[in-house]
Amino acid sequence: MVAIVGRPNVGKSTFLNRVIGQKLSITSRKPQTTRYQILGIKTEGVHQIVFVDTPGLHRGRHGALDRALNREAIKAIAQVDIILFMVEALRWTEDDQYVLKCIKPAACPVLVAVNKVDTVADKSQLLPYLSEVSGFMNLAEIVPLSSSTGDNIVALEEALKSRLPERPALFPADELSDRGERFFAAELIREQLLRRLGAEVPHRLTVMIDEFVSKPHITCIDATIWVERPGQKQIVVGAHGAVLKAVGQHARLEMERLFGSRVFLRTWVKVKEGWSDDIRALGRLGFHD
Q1: Phi, psi of 186 (to 5 degrees)
Q2: What is the pLDDT of residue 60?
Q3: Which of 97, 151, 197, 239 is buried deepest, with most CB atoms within 10 A?
Q4: What is the largest CA-CA distance in the chain?
Q5: 222: β partners
Q6: What is the rounded distance in angstroms from the CA atom of residue 269 to the CA atom of residue 239?
């Protein structure tokens, strides 16, 4: 079990998708794209690595959703065999420092993945940065890589394999994730919303699958997009329904690629005031203390 931890937008989900070879985690440039723990399972020969993609750890936000996201990530740290601490090449922030504080008490090995090295033109600048990061704590290894291009991903996998505990595999060899199709359907809709909306609205919306019916040649899905204010609903729907239509079209295509069948998708937008700060509402969405 390997927890992928780091601040928001450092590339954890892109890394998971790259290493598994299939899209399991949605991605966008918005903070807190990942809201749930997602297991990505890679089995090769006698090695099985179960990657735990976690929400980005962050400081200074105090809503119920923010606290729940931090709990999800911290819970993962306490339950794994190896921590993969992901940072961005040549950039160290207060949120990175906060993640470091969270993982320092861990008893398991900590590897650092220095991501986005493809964006560094002068690679000689990496050496001082790697030296600085290595001094922060007792680290098992530091591996520079690029989740986007795949550069040095294999080297990181080998570093992880050498530290895996010896025990029976946790999952069947052909299993890629612990999540089902309903979960991925909701996440693919939310991904399209994240990519099309402004900075504030995505944090205040969520997607629930109301009906998911698999038929021989088509999968029929009904989904509700919940927002907190009527004004947000107008933004999500867009002029003459343009935004919602585009979201549905692109999400449906992503689902058809993932599920391997035709998809009939219907979406609605509804208002539930204050859902992101409502502990009971968050519980129904899968966030628990």
Answers
A1: -65, -40
A2: 60
A3: 197
A4: 58
A5: 211, 266
A6: 14
Confidence of residue 251 (pLDDT cuts 50, 70, 90): very high
The answer to whether 2 and 20 have CB atoms below 8 angstroms apart is no
Q: Say whether both 144 and 238 belong to one domain.
A: no
CA dist 129 and 133 (Å) reads: 6
Residues 16 and 146 in one domain: yes
Contact status, residue 29 vs residue 244, Cβ threshold 8 Å: no
Rounded Cα gap, residues 195 and 247, in angstroms: 9
CATH number for the domain including 126?
3.40.50.300
Lowest mean pLDDT among 105-109, 167-171, 279-283: 279-283
What's this model's pTM, rounded to 2 decimal places?
A: 0.81
For 162-183, give the DSSP string.
TT---S--SS-TT--BS--HHH
What one-letter code names the amino acid at 252?
A: R
The encoded tokens of residue 22 equal 């299939």
The amino acid occupying position 171 is F
Domain total of the chain: 2
218-227 and 262-271 strand pairing:
parallel
Helix (H, G, I), strand (E, B) or coil at 6: coil
Print the domain residue range for 254: 181-284
Per-residue pLDDT tens digits for 101-131? 889 888 899 999 999 999 999 999 999 999 9
Residue 34 pLDDT more than 70? no
Residues 6+ away with beta carbon under 8 Å from 14? 25, 27, 147, 148
